[in-house]
Amino acid sequence: MKVIECSDxxxxxEKRYTGTEFEVLKGVSFAIEEGSRTAIIxxxxxxxxxxxxxxxxxxxxxxxxxIFGTALDKMNRxxxxxSIAYMxxxxxxxxxxxxxxxxxxxxxxxxxxxxxxxxxxxTDAVMNAMRSTGVEALxxxxxxxxxxxxxxxxxxxxxxxxxxxxxxLDEPNxxxxxxxxxxxxxxxxxxxxxxxxxxxxxAVTGDKxxxxxxGxxxxxxxxxxxxxxxxxxxxxxxxxxxxxxKTRPHTLIGVYHDIxxxxxxxxxxxxxxxxxxxAQGTKEEILKTDALENVYGFAVRDYLKASLKNV
Length: 311
Hints:
Elements: E1 2-14, E2 21-33, E3 37-41, H1 48-55, E4 62-67, E5 70-71, H2 77-83, E6 84-87, H3 99-104, H4 120-132, H5 148-161, E7 166-170, H6 178-192, E8 195-197, E9 199-201, E10 208-210, H7 219-223, H8 225-228, H9 231-237, E11 247-249, E12 251-255, H10 259-265, E13 268-273, E14 276-282, H11 283-287, H12 291-296, H13 300-309
Parallel strand pairs: 3-12, 3-13, 6-7, 7-12
Antiparallel strand pairs: 1-2, 1-4, 4-5, 8-11, 9-10, 13-14
Helix pairs in contact: 4-5, 5-6
């Protein structure tokens, strides 16, 4: 199944002083398969960040973007956020919430009212996310007291708590040291191997249940006794809601400057240059061609081989 499909996508900015338009994306078309890990790479100014912001509905565009088969321009912000979690580069902290409060913000997309209290499900999701990124022990600390690496782990936990099946990253390793980057790569790999469980509504009873795929481990069944107790009911409803998606495998999409990190985290590559897609395919397919050299303008494969040889 294709989780994201873009067709003839154009994005332009208006130049502040001249009022003329500068086209950043020039007819971009591609599709991303469910459960895949895709890296979007290319030199500075090639349109990578603009592309993912358009996909997330953060920029106006011309063309077509579909998320799980639904046109992006027909979705509201909350609906988009239930499908896509977006994590930007590390930025300055303006309000010093606690770590727990910050991670809980990821649950906003699941709230039903303006001032709704956190449910048991929300609390379990937050604790699970903090455990999975190693920040559980920091939950009472203020953000202003954290290092850059700790902050990025907290923001990643907030993204995980959102429990959206698609995670889009914009240079998550920016300004981070090697150890932190390695840890983040590990967290992201673990996340990509799991699934998001979707609340389903039975048309007959109105009951909401979580139906994991056969053989899959639902995080709620693991960390929530509440949900675990309903496992049998979930199974009973399987026949009644066969046509509804029960879970969604996680799909990871990232913009990376670090090619080695892209190669480690992704199984597919999209290479961009001058606002267009220069090449796309699996890592193996791309490495057999001169696509990297054509995009970056130097012998990238020789550079990568030399880097490994010198370790």
